[in-house]
Every structure is written in structure tokens, then in C-alpha cells.
Design brief:
Layout lengths: L7 E7 L4 H8 L4 H8 L4 H22 L8 E3 L5 E3 L9 E7 L2 E7 L4 E7 L6 H8 L2 H9 L2 H22 L10 E3 L9 E4 L2 E2 L5 E6 L5 E8 L3
Antiparallel strand pairs: 1-5, 2-3, 4-5, 6-11, 7-8, 8-9, 10-11
Helix pairs in contact: 1-3, 2-3
Length: about 220
């Protein structure tokens, strides 16, 4: 994916989780990350976490010019991961999302951002999820879509709302119906409303993209002042 903003770098990768890749990846993780990996019940999920996390470290290390194993992380607002001392002074923002073996990383030196990705497939109970999580306006738009467009329309809305939550740190506890996004496959990706204010005044940009065949993603970034 090529971002519309030159200060945002998006990296899309497929995970290789063979024994050698997992061993090499585990070697750059902190002890706390390895303990976290051991809490996964499924071996496949454990392997994916190890490789995914090590890839994040290596991508950040390339941009900072430091060893991958030296990086330290902390949790920011609502648990959003961020670099901690002494690396936070570099002002490097990042976010990642994964689905199956696909991982999308986003980096920026000057803006907060959030990214989300989903496999394009029929979601069981999508109508009920939309009724609970989408705004009335989004639900109405979703219900009006043709059967052919409804699956992608649902996933458009879900990934765009998730990316916004991850970028802003507002948290799912605040509700997903307090802001609205476009979702129809025939319309451009836009933030329509945030807490009663028009989306054009909210200070955030939204982009939709297809990171790989069979996947849809969304990227939200803070608008330059």
C-alpha cells in the first residue's frame, strides 16, 4: 500500500512461522514478551505472536538505528502500545493489525495513527453486530446495501471504526456509535461525524485499502494543523 501521506509508511507482510523463524524471532524479544507468548493456548497463535512482535521490533529498529532487542515499550492511553524511554524522544508513532497470517504495520514520525484489517468473508451475525455497534445512520446505510455489497459494506464500517478507535485511543467502552464513517463500497472512505461535529472538522483523516487479495483495511491518521 502507498499512503496518501508521505510521512506515513505502511508495511504489509505475511508471517513465516517455521521453527527457525520462531527461534530467531524469540531471540530479540524481551522476557515479558516471551512470557506473554507462552500464555497462548494454540501453538499457531504463539508462533504468530512471536514472529509478529519481532518483526515490529526490527521495523522500528531500522527506523531508529538501534538494535531490535534494545527497544522498550509501554502502554499509552487505553493500552495503546508506544515506545518508552529513551526511545520515545524520537517521536516515532506506530500501530499494527493482523488477521490470520497477514500483518499490517503503520509508522509515522509526526502523527498518531491507527490501522485495522479484516479478511473479506461473510461474518456470522453481522446484522446483529451492526445493530449493536453501528450508529443509526450507519445501520440505515448498511441495510440499504444490495446483498452483493453488504459483506464488504459491513467490513468497511468495522475496520474504519476500529482504526479510528486505535488512532484516537477513545476505547470501545466509549461506544462505537459516537462517530460515523462511510461504508458503502461505491463511496470514498470518510469520517462523517464525531460527537455531533462534522467529520471534516474532527482533525483526523481516513483511508481504506486492500493490503492483499481477500483482505480489506483502514488507516486513520491525525490531520496536520
Amino acid at each position: 500500500m502507498e499512503s496518501a501521506r508521505h510521512d506515513i509508511d505502511v508495511v504489509v507482510t505475511r508471517l513465516t512461522v517455521g521453527d527457525e523463524a520462531v527461534r530467531a524471532s524469540a531471540a530479540v524479544l524481551a522476557a515479558s514478551e516471551r512470557r506473554r507468548a507462552e500464555r497462548f493456548v494454540q501453538d499457531r497463535d504463539r508462533r504468530r505472536f512471536i514472529v509478529r512482535r519481532a518483526r515490529l521490533r526490527r521495523l522500528l529498529a531500522e527506523r531508529l538505528g538501534v538494535p531490535a532487542e534494545s527497544l522498550r515499550f509501554s502502554e499509552g492511553v487505553r493500552g495503546k502500545p508506544q515506545l518508552s524511554s529513551p526511545f520515545e524522544s524520537a517521536g516515532l508513532h506506530f500501530n499494527l493489525t493482523h488477521c490470520d497470517d497477514l500483518v499490517v504495520y503503520a509508522f509515522s514520525t509526526c502523527t498518531e495513527l491507527g490501522v485495522d484489517v479484516e479478511a473479506i468473508r461473510v461474518v456470522p451475525g453481522a446484522d446483529d453486530i451492526a445493530a449493536l455497534s453501528f450508529s443509526p445512520r450507519e445501520c440505515e446505510t448498511y441495510r440499504r446495501l444490495s446483498a452483493r455489497d453488504r459483506t464488504l459494506g459491513f467490513l468497511n464500517c468495522w475496520t474504519r471504526k476500529e482504526a479510528f478507535v486505535k488512532a484516537t485511543g477513545c476505547g470501545l467502552a466509549d461506544g462505537l456509535d459516537g462517530f460515523e464513517v462511510s461504508l458503502a463500497p461505491s463511496e470514498p472512505a470518510r469520517i462523517l461525524r464525531v460527537n455531533g461535529r462534522p467529520g471534516r472538522d474532527c482533525g483526523w483523516n481516513l483511508a481504506s485499502f486492500f493490503p492483499a487479495p481477500g483482505f480489506v483495511g483502514a488507516l486513520v491518521s491525525q490531520r496536520s494543523s
